[in-house]
Amino acid sequence: MQLFTAMDKIDDHILHELAHDGRISNLDLAERVGLSPSACLRRVAALERTGVIAGYRAVLNRTALGVGFTAYVTVGLNTHTKASQEAFERAMSRAPEVVECHNITGAVEYLLRVEAADLTAYKSFHTDVLGTLPQVHAITSYVVMGSPKDERA
């Protein structure tokens, strides 16, 4: 993959439109950004080829999928070794409730976004998954009460 450096306002506009509607037709996208369809397709292909566009995703309705509970969870490890981090990350990759896992700086090592059906399901994850990992030292949960802005795919 080559490094893409020649971004301009049209590329920014293309990215903005695709971020809001990844299924937009090339014809509609070209019209919105002021290009011919062939020029627009070439630019999108270049953005994909260079890795600026890494993929396309569907925006899911979590409530319709039975997810009624979301929490951000910080996790501190008891040892700061590569083996401890790798073991924790493997466990999180196997946990379907964990939709995001970030290794962060600060007082703790990880920030998780956890989605579950309800509080009871979250408690089960907290106790039966996080609570059983030998490398976990501290867990703090921040329950999401509402999301006035959420632009994730």
From TrEMBL:
Gene3D superfamilies: 3.30.70.920, Winged helix-like DNA-binding domain superfamily/Winged helix DNA-binding domain. GO terms for molecular function: sequence-specific DNA binding. PROSITE patterns: HTH_ASNC_1 (PS00519), HTH_ASNC_2 (PS50956). Residues 7-68 form the HTH asnC-type domain. InterPro entries: ArsR-like_HTH, AsnC-type_HTH_dom, Dimeric_a/b-barrel, Tscrpt_reg_AsnC-like, Tscrpt_reg_AsnC/Lrp_C, Tscrpt_reg_HTH_AsnC-type_CS, WH-like_DNA-bd_sf, WH_DNA-bd_sf. One of its GO terms (biological process) is alanine catabolic process. Keywords: Activator, DNA-binding, Transcription, Transcription regulation. One of its GO terms (cellular component) is cytosol. This is Transcriptional regulator, AsnC family. It comes from Roseovarius pacificus.
